[in-house]
């Protein structure tokens, strides 16, 4: 073949080869972008491979780095036995902004050791290295800084005293939760959620393989990729669940079951992730239980949690459910009364402001219904209050707590 004929042939071959490679890349990228559920155990990876991190060559190909050397699987055990009457030390770690009022802690918890971390004030005595990830940055930073001098029990909470996600059996009151928290239970279990009520969060909440965004769980579609970055040795679970909302307590032994470097690694992920602040924080809300128990679902029985953790012992699951039914019934009637009163107020305000036509169009409260609601409230409230009071009295006996929790108990045992 002459040189003149070879040149067009070679050129055509090169063009076809480039076209083939382009098509292959395009198809691959298209497939990667198609919505698909992440299979259990699958990890999502970035387009560019990670550095070999010191992995050796085998047959000309880099081996995976030995993750087990820097990400050892912890051996989570029940707390070691301490003598009855042991004086448990504890520290309350609070994640706050500079504008949040925490005076209630000194007023309600004068003897509680506290560590108030301010996320948005670099001049504060205790402050986060970066205002990112909501409470996650504070929690991890405190563990990193205090790893070698931990108290028996570390309690991680938000700054507000009253909020909906504090259990209403305890008056939605953080001070009551902290006062009544059984340090003994924290030591035994290693990790406890400060919230006992399952909703929201249990028993089946986040699904890391989901690809359709849920406006109420915006972080759900991001969990699989974040999981593979945080826990490269662990398969992506089908579900993540624990009671909300990132408030929990840990024993010293449980924190130290993982090496100090592991917490530094977690915080480095928080520093480097491109996720927005609120999403990176919410990612962690449903992985804390995995970090400290190795379980993707941690939903202890509500009645056991209230009894063994806070001393509200209703006598068993059936008795607890009966209490919840009465409490919900009371809440429903209180809501009905508020709605009835709001209708009357709306009409009165419209009349006072001269909006007479609008006042005529507004829904009118049914005459006499308020008396019915008040009568039911007066009947139900003492029932609920009595059941709650009896539960706390029952919980004063450590034997009752052990019985309801299914724990073995001997004379002289502690709570």
TrEMBL record:
Residues 61-84 have a biased composition (Basic and acidic residues). The lineage of its organism: Eukaryota, Fungi, Dikarya, Ascomycota, Pezizomycotina. This is Uncharacterized protein. It comes from Lophiotrema nucula. InterPro entries: DUF3431 (IPR021838). It holds the Pfam family DUF3431. Residues 42-84, 348-375, 389-415 are annotated as: Disordered.
């Amino acid at each position: 073949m002459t040189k003149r004929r070879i040149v067009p042939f070679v050129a055509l071959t090169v063009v076809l080869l480039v076209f083939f490679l382009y098509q292959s890349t395009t198809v691959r990228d298209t497939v990667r972008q198609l919505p698909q559920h992440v299979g259990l155990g699958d990890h999502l990876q970035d387009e560019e491979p990670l550095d070999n991190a010191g992995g050796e060559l085998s047959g000309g190909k880099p081996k995976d780095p030995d993750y087990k050397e820097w990400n050892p699987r912890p051996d989570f055990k029940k707390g070691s036995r301490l003598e009855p009457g042991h004086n448990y030390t504890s520290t309350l770690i609070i994640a706050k902004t500079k504008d949040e009022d925490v005076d209630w802690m000194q007023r309600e918890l004068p003897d509680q050791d506290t560590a108030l971390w301010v996320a948005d004030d670099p001049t504060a005595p205790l402050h986060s290295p970066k205002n990112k990830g909501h409470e996650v940055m504070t929690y991890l930073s405190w563990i990193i800084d205090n790893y070698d001098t931990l108290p028996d029990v570390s309690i991680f909470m938000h700054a507000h005293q009253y909020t909906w996600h504090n259990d209403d059996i305890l008056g939605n009151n953080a001070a009551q939760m902290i006062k009544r928290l059984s340090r003994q239970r924290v030591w035994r279990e290693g990790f406890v959620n400060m919230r006992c009520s399952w909703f929201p969060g249990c028993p089946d909440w986040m699904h890391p393989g989901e690809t359709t965004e849920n406006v109420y769980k915006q972080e759900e579609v991001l969990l699989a990729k974040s999981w593979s970055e945080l826990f490269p040795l662990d398969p992506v679970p089908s579900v993540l669940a624990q009671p909300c909302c990132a408030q929990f307590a840990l024993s010293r032994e449980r924190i130290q079951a993982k090496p100090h470097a592991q917490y530094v690694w977690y915080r480095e992920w928080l520093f480097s992730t491109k996720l927005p602040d609120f999403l990176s924080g919410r990612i962690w809300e449903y992985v804390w239980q995995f970090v400290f128990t190795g379980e993707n679902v941690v939903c202890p029985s509500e009645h056991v949690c209230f009894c063994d953790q806070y001393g509200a012992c209703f006598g068993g699951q059936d008795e607890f459910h009966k209490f919840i039914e009465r409490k919900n019934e009371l809440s429903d009637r209180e809501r009905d009364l508020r709605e009835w009163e709001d209708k009357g107020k709306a009409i009165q305000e419209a009349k006072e402001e001269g909006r007479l036509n609008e006042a005529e169009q507004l829904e009118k409260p049914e005459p006499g219904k308020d008396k019915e609601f008040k009568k039911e409230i007066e009947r139900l409230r003492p029932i609920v209050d009595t059941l709650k009071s009896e539960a706390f009295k029952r919980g004063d006996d450590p034997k009752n707590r052990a019985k309801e929790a299914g724990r073995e108990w001997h004379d002289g045992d502690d709570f």
